[in-house]
Amino acid sequence: MNENNIPKTYDAKEWENELYSKWEESGLFNPDICIKKNITDETKPTFSIVLPPPNVTGTLHAGHAAMLAIEDTIVRYHRMKGDRTLWIPGTDHAAVATQSKVENILWKEEQKTRFDLGREEFLKRIETFAQQSHDTIVHQTKKMGASLDWSREAYTLDEKRSLSVRTAFKKMYDDGLIYRGYRVVNWTIKGQSTCSDDEVVTIERQAKLYTFRYSKNFPIAIATTRPETKLGDTAIAVHPDDERYKKYIGQTFTADVGSAKPLAIKIIADESVDPAFGTGAVGVTPAHSHADFEMRERHPEIDLIQVIDTDGTMTAEAGQDYAHLTTLEAREKFVLWLRENDLIEKEEDITQNVGTSDRYEDVLEIIPMRQWFVAVNKEFDHSGKKTTLKQLMREAVGPGKITLLPERFSKTYFHWIDNLRDWCISRQIWFGHRIPVWYCLSCKKERINATVKSRWFFVRHGETDWNKKEINAGTTDIPLNETGREQARLTAEKLAAENIGVIFSSHLSRAHETAKIIGKKIGVDEIIIDDRLQERNMGKAEGLSYSETKKRFPDLQKYNGKSANNESYEEAENRIWKAVSEHLEKHSHKNVLITSHGAVLRALWRKIQGVTPESIMNIKRFPNATPLSIDILKPCEYCGHHFFEQDPDTLDTWFSSGLWTFSTLGWPDENAVDFKNYHPTSLLETGYDILFFWVARMILMTEYLLDTHPFDTIYLHGLVRDEQGRKMSKSLGNVIDPLTVSEKYGADALRMALISGSTPGNDLRLSDEKIVMMRNFTNKLWNLARYVGTMTEKTNTPPEPKTDADQYLIKKLHAIVRDITRHLERYELSLAAEELREFTWGDFADWYVEVHKVEKNDALLRYAFDKILKLWHPFMPFVTEAIHQTFHFDTNEFLMIAKWPEFDTTKLEIATENRFELVKGLISTIRNVRAAYHIDPAQKMTVSAFGESEQTLRGNEEIFKRLARIDKLQTLKSAVAPKNTLRVQYGLLSAFLHLDGVVDIAKERARFTKEKDEKEKYIATLEAKLSNKNFIERAKKEIIETKHGKLKESQKQLLDIKNHLASLQN
RNA sequence: GGACAAUUAGCUCAGUUGGUUAGAGCACAGCAUUCACAUUGCUGGGGUCACUGGUUCGAAUCCAGUAUUGUCCACCA
Fold this sequence. Notes:
It is built from 34 helices and 37 strands. Helix 1 (12-26) packs across helix 28. The longest helix has 26 residues, at 829-854. The two termini are 45 Å apart. The relative contact order is 0.09. It binds one RNA strand through strand 8, strand 12, helix 8, helix 11 and strand 32.
């Protein structure tokens, strides 16, 4: 290899993309291929991690980069070790997070809300956005060097994960753990959705606390910051022992505050009330407070009155003065009323904590609603014993079960479980897994996780001129107008993806043409004309305007009205029902479009819903060319109808994320190969900020569904902050973009900066400076390779030690391999990286390479460097692989799959001289002890030793016995130190003696890893320096050229060294 | 209000089960430069390990308390 061809600096950009593609093409990220290529085999242990799926909300940030760096390091280590190693990539649809992001963009760019676009179109926008985010994320992930098995990539919203979600939902529903209940939920007005307790972000704000009475003679005053909610008060709670109020407990007082009905306030006793706070009485608003709702569960006799609506205005229950006002307007008005009636006793300014929505950032309202919940406290039968989900979660973590790193987080975990309420899993947002529940349109009964046979669409024709002029057409054949045709085309677009097989249409041209326009656009040629789908015959009313008809034939709007010699709703309904039923028998497996007319569809819709004939006019009119979709299922087991509609809500995103460790491995197919091989996974590595959101839910789901743990160990990394310790945020402009950084300094430098100097659970400050330092190190490694690769001969001689320095290096190398391996096994990445860096830079580069320049031992140098390179690979995959590809120190095709270095404990034994020194030290100790405690120097003693010192002592037992006057050398294991013992420290050893006269000497822990051969190393360096001709010549020159006859410091040092060496030789 | 953490050199941080003289990088000072590497090397200064007690032969490390900072949780109406 010609030195000149190799650049002096390592240029990450030159290598990274190319190397990643090569790795990827090799397929070696996939354990199946590693088995095929004999890098591992079926007898080897498995090691698996699922990547915490990044949200498809944009791009990766520094936190993701840390996650990737940590996980990839661990994964690469295990792969090199020969484990069957699997790391699965994926992304998270992240429901609310993504939806709110797209909604914000939509509002900013087009001033539209999701309701303006409609469900289908809005979802399309989100999917486009999600796809782009996904691509960016994958690109960034690859840039970091992450050795993920892309062939197994998953998405929380794809078909397979969807199946897992439905399966899990059904099982929980069947076990009674998922229920639909009327409870108070956190509601974001802006997002028009619920959110779970964990998604609530409490912020501090200024508020006014009003103390008032409901009426002049009301016996108890209460305080509130939300006076308008008091219109929904139904009780006052006081402490049971509160003497002031005891006499009122159980009584009900009424007060007219302007709400729809006068308030009936019952005085109840509840332990949760703090009698010392405020007036010692709490106004209870069960509809708009979690605490008060729970209070009502304890006191079911009190009422619940909802005064705030989902749009943030007051309901009718609040009274006609307040209905439809915003909460703020209502508050002002109510306060004014209180003031006018002289009911306010106190107004004070306080700071208050309020809950806001994590994603929409508006203050949440607490509103009672019918929602889906997971019951965490409900007992159920689990593998033969009674338990609750809470209990399952609690029992999963602890010694011998799931290990948390750092361990202290288990405390917060348990605390969180203890305070857990039922988990609200339904969301009114559109992006996410639809709740797999269908309601029979006729009898309203639920069906879970149903198979949809087909979807049927009912469309009223597009607009005609008569529609526009509000004239009855009936059987009169009025064609579509231009607007009508356009409407049909738009409808076709909406239906394009619905895979419609057949179209049935009324023969009347306005319907038929609508069908034709749609059919052409969605590629359905066959349009079956069925006269029974035609419009209601309006008899004499055809051609009359709506208002005229109303005047002349008022009974036409009735179910049986026939005064215009017309067809009644009843007759029309029967014929269309017959037609639809017939078609259903033949075509229920196909998606079907039916184009028909307003009145008959309305009649049909009434029939399907099974409401009384009299309420026909309460059925909403069908607008022109707007599809109504109905799911066709197996007939309802209660009423026999086929028509169902799915719950419009979606699931909390964490419901699907909770299944991630096994939904990615093939579950619900419990025989899936991956599932059998790789579950439970070995490690979960994620930020501590989602311990509750995600980790806890995975534990819940896995314990419940599979009766096992999702992972053995949880490694929680900290938040990545900027150099001043602030959270990275766009508004502060301090965001470190991993992509920019890795382009500038290389991915390896970024990885190292994120790993070293960081410990699990603690936040990490990332600065440019730190990254530069690591970039410098990658360059150091590169140049080491240049030296070792070009300055040494390739040799096949085994690396035999020739000098003390060689000996030291070998010993140190084995110690390093042992330490790094041990650190990696314990997930102590930072320690591993630091220690390895110190060894590489301090020992190998700055010391041994210098030695090598004098005492050439090429075989050993190459041998050592090869080991170092392999140890570095998991941390810095690119530069190490680049070196490998350039210099080929090892024969493997890729360093990535090179065998992890092993160490030999016998090589770690300390040298004889050092042992001797150790013994000498111990003897002095004994002498000191004898002197200090006036023990007869002639008296013999028992000496006890531990650990590595024991070995040392045994090796020199005879000398030791003689010199130290002992009669017995004993072995003690730690913990044995008797109470009445004095211990005296000397050097490396600590000795202790019993006060009863017999002296024991023991060494509790000797640390030999850093022992005295530092000295060896020092001498070797000096020798090397001094025998380096250049060095001597330079020094001489310096001395001669020195002006003023004064030696510079450095020269003095040189002389010192010389003298020192001379004294050593004597 | 509760819980958890942090406090080590001018700055950013390691220090994993109590043990030689408490470490690293940056910054600072001095020196070196045909050398694999200036993205370099050598040398040096700089620390009462927040404070006060306790346990121990021995404490940055364990215990108790105090102070400051931060994070999370909580129904103070």
